[in-house]
Amino acid sequence: MPEKTKTPKISQCGKCGLYKKAVSPKIEVQGEGKHKILFVIETPDEMADRTGSAIEGDEGQFLLEKLYEIDKELTDCYITHAVICKAPKIEPYMISCCRPNLLKRINEIKPNVIIPLGSAALKSILYQEWPKDPGTIGKWIGWNIPSPKYNAWICPTYDLKFILEKEEPQIINEFKNHLKNAFKHEKRKVKSYNLEELKNRIELIPNPRKGNLRMKELSNKKGVVAFDYETNGLKPDKKGHKIISCSFCLNGKDTFATMIDESNQEMLSRILRNPNLKKVASNLKFEERWTRAIFGHGVRGWVWDTMLASHCLDNRPGICSIKFQAFIYMGISDYASHISSFLTSKNSNGFNTIEKLDKKQLLIYNGLDSLLEYIVANKQRRIFNG
Can you give the pTM of this predicted structure? Predict the structure, then answer.
């Protein structure tokens, strides 16, 4: 079952004061919605404000033309705004005030595809699944994200005003391709993963001695294993730096996370040296560096690094982390913000406070990393193979 989108109360509407200066305040959703596709524009432009239309002028004409070129009609789609009253310059508080309106409209029309046009629209749409600052629109455009919150595909692209100001053929072609790909998802079911179900697939082993027995079983097996360390610092250069926990996902079916101490380090070393276990990681240089520092040897059998693969597939900055990759491919929203403060040190050579973190929370987080690394690696392989 898709997760129900929470709709905040509309009590904030009007707090921004934009309606007082608007000729056409609070412009409604427009379009017949035959395609079940919703365009979310940042805010009405001057002509749209004068006429009360969702989109007018050069921006409206441009969108009409580009849709016509791919044999689509704008009137067959829905159109709304991130900020529904004309805003000369959009501020974050305006997006927050108007977000309940947008969520209410999405709940009412239940689109299959949502196309945010520009950063304001994107921030409003992503807030429920990516509450931290999503950054610039640049790293988001062109992805087709399966969203369990909206039970729809989120397909971000450029702001129309930006395109018209730039007038660059490359950007215009990209925009047209974004529209084509978004419409391809019109009748595709959203295939997302349930975070709670993934958590239930992880065996949590807080006792290192029991973890030793579990790792002994793994050390004698063959297959592809994604693994991930949680450590008490970013770099293993100072006395006292150590591996706190480690997780494994063998062939996508057997996932467990265990605390690490002297009682099970030798078994961990055996797994890392087993060439029959083909290793997957996200940013493998981290695990390789810690392995060499702690055990005095490297990892045998490396076959995939999701971070390197993501960079080869798309070299935009800010998209290579397993968290971002899991979101764009699987719809897995942020699962780390509640513990991120424990994982951060004051500098790259310092110590974090991971050992103060509840062991269950740590092992769930650690186990998710390995499980998601395995799934993302398989998705990346399929893309490479065409």
Answer: 0.91
